[in-house]
Each structure stands twice: as C-alpha cells, then as structure tokens.
Design goal:
The protein is of the alpha+beta class. The chain contains 15 helices and 18 strands. The chain has 4 domains: about 10-175, Beta-Lactamase, CATH 3.30.450; about 200-295, PAS domain (Beta-Lactamase), CATH 3.30.450.20; about 305-380; about 385-545, Histidine kinase-like ATPase, C-terminal domain (Heat Shock Protein 90).
C-alpha cells in the first residue's frame, strides 16, 4: 500500500525549515532538535515511528539514541541499546555498504536474516526504510521510518527526505563531538598548567651562575654540566633569533614583555618549547638576568590540537551552511536569468539593430557561469573524502569565485603561469581550496592601499612535488614577520586565547589557518619579502601526500 505524499512544495519547505533549525546549534540543543525533526518527518510521511541509531565502531554495536512514535505506537528505544552488529550480519552488511535499506514486508527477508526478522516481529514492524549517516566514508549510524499498522512502500520523495535529514543529523552530531573534544582538551590544558614544574636560572656575563635541579633535568643535563656554561648552548637557532630580536627592540627603546615563549634544545638535541618570565636584578653588585622557565611543550601540543579542532569546526560550519543553500540559490538564479535571457532574445528579434540585448545576454551567461562554479565548489567541499585534485583547476575555480566581486576584477592585475599536465595531489578538496584561497585572499587584502596591485600565481612540477608560488605587491605584515605567521608555535602565542584582534592580526590568524589545513599533507610554506614591496609565498606540495 502506498501512502499519498503531500505536494512537493510542502516537502521543500519542510527540508528548508529543518535545515535552518540545525544551523549553528550549541551542543546542549542537539538532542531536542533531533527529536523535534523526527516528529516532523514522521508526521509528514505518515510513519508510525522515526528514529536514530548511532554506531560504536570500537565495540561494533548500535544504539537507539532518539525516537518519535505516533499515537498508540509503543516506544522501543529502551530495548535497543548496545546491540551487537556481528550477530546481525545481513543488516551489518547493508550498513557497511552505506545502502538505503527498504523492507516492504519483513516476511520477505532472506533466510539468513533470522535474528533481524525475529526482532522486527517482536516490535510489530511490518515495513521499514533506513538511510545511513555517513561521515568520512564510514557509516556512523542511521535514520529510519517504521510502519507498524500496515505494510507500505515509501515514495522516492519520502526516501529523499530521509537521506537529507540523515546528512543534516550527521553534520550536527559530528559538530557536537568536535566541540566536546575541544572542551575536554581545554580542561586537560587547565590541569597541565596548574601542575607545571618550573626551572630557575640566573645568568650573568653570558653564563649560568645559578640553576636549580628542575631546570637541568628539564633539559636532560646534570647540574655540573650547565653551571657556569655559556647560556646560549641551550638555545636552538630559532630561540637565538627570538633572543636577538628582543635585545634589538630593547636597544631601540621599545618596551619588551618580560614573559615570552622561546625554544631550547635538550642535551639529546631534541627541541623543547618553554615560557620564560625574565627580570633584571642586581646580583653581587652587578646586573644579572633572573628567569623562571616553564616547559610548555605539552601545552603547545594541546593548543595546536585545540586550534585544529576550532578550525575544523569553522570549516565544517562554512561548508555545511554553503552546501545546504547552494543548490536552491543557484536554481533560483538560473530560473530568473532564463526569464531575463528569453526576454532579451525576444527584444533582439523585434529590434535586431539594438545592442543592449546582446549585452544583457552576455552578462546573464557570465552570472550563470559564476553560479555554476559556486555550486560546483560547494558540492566538492561537502565531499569529506580523499580525492585526486588538479591544482590548476582548483586555482582557476577559486579565482573565478573571487572575481564575482567586481573589486578584485577591476582593481587587481592577476598574471597566471600554470604548468600544463601537473600531476594530481591527494587530499580533502575543502582543505586545499580553503588553504590556497586563504593565501590568495591574504594577498588581495594586503594590496588594499597599494598604488600598484599585481598578483602572480605560478605552478610547476619539481620531482615529487608541485611548487605553487603566489606573489603580491602589497605591504608587509607585522614588521616583516610573515615567515613566523606560518610557524606553528610562534603563531599560537599570538592568536590563541584572543577574543578580539585588529584587522591585520586577523589576516595573519587566517594565514595560520591555511598552515594548519595544509600541514597535514606535509605542505611546506615559505614566505619572502623582496625589494620593491613584493611578498612571495612558496608552497611545496607533495604529489603522493
């Protein structure tokens, strides 16, 4: 028996309503919103029961986490906890294949689905349909409809609704998981900071004249190996650069903070990230440097982990919101432009000497091209799977997307030198599109006040790498410290924990986001400032990931 669906217009309104409800939910609202949505789609489709099951991969179990039942239908959620998947092999195989599961009559299940059939009969279920919830190529659960009072077959529109809701629930549940991980890491961070063991040192005339055992142990030395030693022996090259920079700024009359982060090296040669709280004191009648040294290596790792989680949350929200509305927006744009183009063509037939219809048609076609590119970009960024990426095509797509802003098109001269037949790189399309577009946008923003606005984009294959070079004629950022903006531990000290940042610092923080997105693919980023106010980004991208 087939239930009559409501008109498609109602279905689209329901999907839009549910999609809007799930944008930017805080974790505490998720369960209530899922239950509300299950009620809405259950009533809309005339189902007797709608529900969500989540999978536990480590235990290979599934658990009913959310349920709505029509009046007179017995709830089953209390009985559906930690069910072993390997005992339900027919159902498990369907889930692993990420297939839509449609059962019009449970009596038609195959013989080897014995347990599944018995459980469905115990719940008085006669028909059901299930849509998998898929994240990063794996099923994390499923959403389903049950029919208890009669046999039925769900329509294509109803199944499409179920699949859309499964995607929305997946994004929301993954988002909540990431937020919870972030909160847990913050608690771990707090406990770590409260239990630090500090080193104490006094240096004078370039030598350690006092150290405590904690400082020596922190670096893997015995006390006797460091006392009266040249203090510079414990600094890395990067640490010495930070030290010389502080001294230079102090000599120039700048106020230098007493607390700063730097990098030491252990006796073994391993790097250790420390925070130094420094004071100038009088020691035996002469100036000396007194410092409290804290090992912050673990804290830095946690900060980087938090930063990556925050970036993943931001990226998922942006991609999810873009994907939810892109299709509808582009569809509406194309419909409107079709009317405009049709009217212009009629006008051209009536008045063949008039030039305006050709101008209207040409610009309408350009808008369609931009809209199609927008949709294509949104669809690719929503695919959370590793794919082969043609960097030249990606760059052209990002530039076309940016050129929809007339400011970039009319004000900035972009010169391309893209090597043909580049080998593909492997990764998430959204990581590379967001990372590379961030560098391009950074370059564009840096030229806002430049008299000459030129940007160059070049690609070339070199051995097992692709080199992407992006140059611009904008101003330097933060006193020429561009290279540090793509150096993780330097950047973390500048951007983590800040509630408000000025425009330039925010640009630099976005640039650091690009570093985080591409670092997982072992992409090396180097920045140079050339004479004549030209800044060049070099991205060395491994071909084999």
């Amino acid at each position: 028996m087939k239930t009559q669906m409501k008109k498609p217009d109602d279905l689209q309104k329901l999907i839009l309503h549910i999609s809007t409800d799930f944008i930017n939910l805080v974790p505490g609202e998720v369960d209530n919103k899922i239950n509300e949505a299950l009620k809405q789609i259950g009533e809309f489709t005339g189902s007797d029961r709608s529900y969500v099951f989540l999978l536990n991969r480590s235990l290979n179990t599934m658990t009913n986490t959310h349920e709505w039942c029509a009046a007179g239908i017995d709830p089953q959620i209390a009985n559906m906890k930690s069910l072993k998947l390997d005992k339900r092999q027919w159902f498990q195989e369907k889930l692993l294949k990420k297939e839509i599961i449609e059962i019009d009559d449970i009596h038609l299940l195959p013989d080897w689905a014995t347990l599944e059939k018995r459980e469905l009969q115990d719940q008085d279920i006669q028909s059901l349909v299930v849509a998998p919830m898929v994240y990063s190529k794996d099923s994390i659960g499923f959403v389903g409809f049950d029919s208890v009072r009669r046999h039925r077959r769900w329509s294509a529109d109803e199944i499409s609704l179920l699949k859309t809701v499964a995607d929305i629930f997946t994004n929301t549940i993954i988002h909540r998981s990431l937020v919870n991980k972030l909160h847990n890491s913050e608690e771990q961070y707090r406990l770590l900071v409260e239990n630090l063991n500090n080193g104490i040192v006094i240096s004078q005339n370039d030598k350690f004249i006092f150290i405590n055992k904690q400082f020596a142990g922190m670096l893997g030395y015995n006390y006797d190996e460091l006392i009266m030693a040249d203090y510079r022996k414990v600094y890395t090259k990067k640490g010495l650069e930070i030290l010389w920079d502080r001294q230079r700024r102090r000599q120039n009359g700048e106020r230098v903070p007493s607390r700063y982060e730097t990098i030491f090296k252990k006796k073994s040669g391993a790097e250790i990230y420390v925070e130094a709280n420094v004071r100038i004191i009088d020691y035996k009648g002469a100036p000396a440097t007194f410092a409290i040294i804290s090992d912050i290596s673990e804290r830095k790792k946690i900060e980087m982990y938090q930063r990556k989680l925050e970036l993943e949350l931001l990226k998922r929200q942006k991609v999810s919101n873009l994907g939810l509305f892109a299709g509808g927006v582009v569809h509406n744009i194309r419909n409107i432009l079709a009317v405009i183009t049709g009217r212009a063509q009629l006008l051209k037939q009536k008045m063949p000497d008039l030039k305006e219809p050709d101008i209207i048609i040409s610009n309408a076609n350009k808008i369609v091209k931009i809209a199609d590119n927008f949709l294509k970009k949104a669809q690719k960024e929503r695919e959370h799977k590793i794919v082969e990426i043609n960097l030249n095509d990606l760059i052209k797509s990002e530039i076309m997307f940016l050129e929809s802003n007339l400011y970039e098109r009319s004000q900035i001269d972009i010169e391309f030198d893209l090597q043909r037949d580049l080998p593909p790189v492997k990764g998430l399309y959204s990581d590379f599109s967001h990372g590379i577009s961030t560098v391009i946008e950074f370059s564009i923003n840096s030229m806002a006040e430049s008299a000459v606005k030129k940007m160059g984009i070049r690609t070339a294959a070199e051995e097992n790498y692709i080199v992407l070079v992006i140059s611009h004629t904008g101003k330097e950022l933060l006193n020429g410290e561009l290279q540090q903006m793509v150096t993780p531990f330097y950047s973390l000290g500048k951007f983590t924990g800040k509630n408000r940042m000025d425009h330039e610092s925010l640009q630099a923080a976005n640039l650091y986001n690009a570093y985080l997105l591409l670092d997982r693919y072992k992409v090396k980023i180097r920045v140079e400032n050339k004479p004549g106010k030209t800044t060049i980004f070099y991205l060395k991208i491994p071909v084999n990931g």
